[in-house]
Amino acid sequence: MPASRSRWSPYRVPAFAAALLLLLGVGIASVWGASTLRSSNAWIGHTYEVINRIEVAERALRSTEANARAYRLTGHPEFRSQYLIAIHQVEVAHEALGAAIRDNPPQDARAKRMHASAQVHLAELRRLFDLQELQGAEAARQATDSGLTLQQWNEFEAAASEMRREELSLLAERKARSDRYATLLISIVVLGMLLSGALMVTLMASVTRENKRTRRLELEARGAAHEMALSMAQVDQLSKQRHELARYSGLLQSCQTLEEIVQLSIATIRRLLPGASGRFYLIRASQNFHDSVASFGEGLISSTDSLLPADCWALRRGQAHVVSGGEDLQLTCAHLDAGTPPHGVTALCLPLTAQGTSIGLLHVSAATHAMDHGSALDELIGQLAEQLGLAIANLQLRETLRTQSLRDPLTGLFNRRYLEESFVRELQRCDRRGLPLSVLMLDVDHFKRFNDTYGHAAGDALLGQIGRQIQAGVRAEDIACRYGGEEFTVVLPELDAPGALVRAEQIRRAVELATVQHLGQQLGPVTMSIGIATFPVDGLTPELLLQLADATLYRAKAEGRNRVLHASYED
Ligand SMILES: Nc1nc2c(ncn2[C@@H]2O[C@H](COP(=O)(O)OP(=O)(O)OP(=O)(O)O)[C@@H](O)[C@H]2O)c(=O)[nH]1
């Protein structure tokens, strides 16, 4: 966003120029005023000089007069020489006075009058002096014409007074002018300084405000850039996380087993949430218990191996449930350790559902700062759980369809193809774990006779019932199948020979005690013969174990039917 300029900005340059012009004007006025004052002061000094020269001329004339009289009265040679010096000084003084007032014609005229009076007066003194020199002092005293001397002296004094008055008048006028100039100069300087100072202060305040504003805008811009970088980093991270989730979705489609799905999910959760731990649960066939199928991470919080829906808020409410350490631990799920999660850790439970049906639970715990509730990551984990639920449901559906294609429609038991596939797998699993595995071969006794007596349809009904009885007599993990005709096979993983004998005997007994309802008729009962072989004592391969169980079955038939025999036992 472009920064808007201050409303004073357009006036700043003209104001600065005005301040500069004012300062220049003050400078020029100061120079002019100073030179005018100097000139005025020079004129004042000149006036004083003129007044001084008038007084010097007066003093010189007076001195001449006094020395001439003293010489006439005393005849002392000292007064004579003083008189002669004074005469010379009168001339010098008048010359100096004339030079000083030459530019002022009225004063020049007065000075000339002064000089003329002084000349007349000096001529009279010189006449008396010459008389004294020639005829003696007495002759000079008697020849003194005091009237003439007094008149000349008065004229001289009058002219000197006029000159002095004139000079004093000029002095007053010049002083007044000088004062005016000084006042004007001071006013100009003070006003100029005040105006330029005010302009400078205003400019400084404006520039300071502008600087503050610029700094604030800079800080805001830096903050915005920082936030932008952060949000870019967040966007980048979110993009990577979305990419991770997209990759997860793609790979999920190709997973063939629950283990692959779980491992892929763990790897993805770890990439989305480094340092997380958690557990996967799947609902048991009883629809009650959720059993753990896998766990991952260092276990920031431990969760039980199995749980009831009532133990988990997420399962109870059918939606994600989050509790962060330090929050209300009353809402912590019962399947988590008491008092957890600790401060700084967040526990998240996500129901795994497919088409509205609960199929399990995903529990994840991670550092709270990495998994804020309502954050994009929280949402991504939620999406992962959704896809995980669908993938598990798809796998289960595929498994169901595959199982159905592998079942015998008459008995509901697995067919021989499924037996061949799963027998190998179960045998390898037990081999890896060091566990035993038993295989039963079961055959209905005299089934041909039953068929012949009650008809083929009754025979089918009997086979269907026996199938259900066999299925009811084994665990879900066991593989019960119709091997062919009236012959059945049951693979019992993890069951040793004694256990297999007990289980086979239970089936034989159940078949023996049952009757078949067919077309309103109660048929039977029938009996079964069962041969057993156990891994690893009787054989190590499915083929060998089946052959041995089959051989034992025929031994049971040979020994009188309706019995259970084990390959390892003689009878
Ligand atoms: N109803 C019906 N009968 C079948 C089916 N499959 C095979 N059978 C019959 O089962 C009978 C098997 O007879 P046998 O193999 O002689 O054996 P058995 O009569 O049971 O005598 P033992 O096994 O020696 O006790 C044959 O008659 C087959 O036709 C089927 O799917 N339905």
TrEMBL record:
Source superkingdom: Bacteria
EC annotation from Swiss-Prot or TrEMBL: 2.7.7.65
CDD domains reported in the protein's UniProt record: GGDEF (cd01949), HK9-like_sensor (cd19410)
Residue stretches making up the GGDEF domain: 435-569
Organism classification: Bacteria, Pseudomonadati, Pseudomonadota, Gammaproteobacteria, Lysobacterales
Keyword Transmembrane helix: yes
Keyword match Transmembrane: yes
Protein name: diguanylate cyclase
Coiled coil: none
Keywords in alphabetical order: Membrane, Transmembrane, Transmembrane helix
TM stretches of this protein: 181-207
SMART domains recorded: GAF, GGDEF
Organism, scientific name: Luteimonas terrae
Reactions mediated catalytically: 2 GTP = 3',3'-c-di-GMP + 2 diphosphate
